[in-house]
Amino acid sequence: MSIVRPRLNDFHNIPITQEEVDFAIPFIDEDIPLYVDPFLLWKSPSMQDNSLHLLITNSFNHLGHLVNKGMEKEAIDLLIRASECDEAGLGNSKTKAGKRIGEKLAVNVLSQFKSIPQINKNGFTHFEEIQLLVDNFSKDRVSDIACNFIQSFLVDFTIEQSEKYGIPIEKVKLQNIYNSKTNSFGEEETHLPINPSTKSPILLIPKRWLKHMPWLNSDDYFNNYYISKIHKEGNDFPDKIKLLDFNRHNYDIVQAYTAIKEKQLENCKNDPLFTQIPVTSAKRKISTITKLPSGKSDNADRKYEDNTCQLMASLLYPHLDFASEQSRTDSGVLIRDLIFYNNTSTNFLKEIYNDYGSKQIVFELKNVHEVNRDHIFQLNRYLNDQFGRFGIIVTRNPPQKKVFKNTIDLWSGQRRCILILDDSDLKMMTQVFISKQRDPIEVIKKKYVEFIRACPS
């Protein structure tokens, strides 16, 4: 059964939610849009994380040691080899395969060990400062280098988590395991999960290390430090190349910025893969939705869909992980859907999975005054494919009796279930979300129980 944006656990029918596991659940066809931030390991209360940070830093500084001993060729080879970690599956690649840096960039990075006296003498404490010194060295390189230097730990972590959650593992040969005793990369045979599409090994990455943007980064340095503390009024702002050149010649200023960021370490937190909207936003969104007219005038249908999408994704988390919003065409009509992974995290969701074969649950958004039979049949046709036999229409008003009877007839004839949620149900779900007394998904469960009671036994 093909599903939208499949994840590793979906492929193996392992019912886990992103909330409950310690790692970022990998997608099969695309990368996870987050990066390992070494600063999170440095500030962690875990001694293990601290020692891993030290290992990353020492391994990077060893490159400088080689450069200063005249062994630049070895340093270049090591840095290029460390610069890409496909097994981690982090970043924005749609192909699951990245590219290592070229020799020119490697030489540029390593030259900092010679040209900046403080680095020449003491090395880096936070190697991600390279972003402030060298062009084209970005957050994905910081993340991949960190992952490669501690790949041995990530292998052990992945095996442990795979055994805990029943993720199948196979014998693989890794080409890029770093040995911190010999300061060299080598091959190693081990057992890891496999990407079913590419057959390549997968490393699971702890959620606690992941951010969209490293704590030390060029934009933050420029906007929150350089402009307020260094830039002289009346002078032109430097372009990126000039700023990097300035930083290289004034490395003490970069160190001062890093020292400030170290003092602010309490504010450095990992970025979750999904963040619920705050209560105030939920109130605003439900207010906007209920005030909108039905139909298409003044772009009302688009506003309805946008607000409902953001609201529903938050209301149903963590019981349903949001997979995607997508548009499709049915007989010339453009339809907007929300698609959720069904992790069977409640008895109700297990029932939906078992009775209707729904690995994913589709919500069809309809900003119409009145749902009719055509709308029911549109969704029903869609449910023939990958979504099993259960779907939900989200619309403005309760259905007329004859339309509700259509849904009952569908159930009687084909054992298909289409629920219809209206503005009052969304309001109730939002109230429950705000009060934190119960879970919004219980409103859908109640709707389902009422539906089943109305079906012939």
Properties at a glance:
Restriction Endonuclease, 2 domains, 5-stranded mixed sheet, two-stranded antiparallel ribbon, 19 helices, 9 strands, 13% strand
Describe the model.
- It is a single chain.
- With 457 residues, the chain is α/β, with parallel strands linked by helices.
- It has 2 domains: 8-267, no CATH class; 279-454, Restriction Endonuclease.
- Helices cover 47% and strands 13% of the residues.
- The chain has helices at 8-11, 38-43, 47-68, 72-82, 103-110, 112-115, 117-122, 139-149, 151-165, 218-230, 240-249, 251-263, 279-291, 300-315, 347-356, 373-382, 401-414, 423-435, 441-454; strands spanning 35-36, 170-179, 184-192, 210-211, 320-330, 333-342, 360-365, 390-394, 417-421.
- A 5-stranded mixed beta sheet has the order 5-6-7-8-9, sandwiched between helices. A two-stranded antiparallel sheet has the order 1-4.
- Helix 3 (47-68) packs antiparallel against helix 4 (72-82) and helix 13 (279-291) runs antiparallel to helix 14 (300-315).
- The radius of gyration is 26 Å and the shape is elongated.
- The chain starts with 7 loop residues before the first helix and ends with a helix.
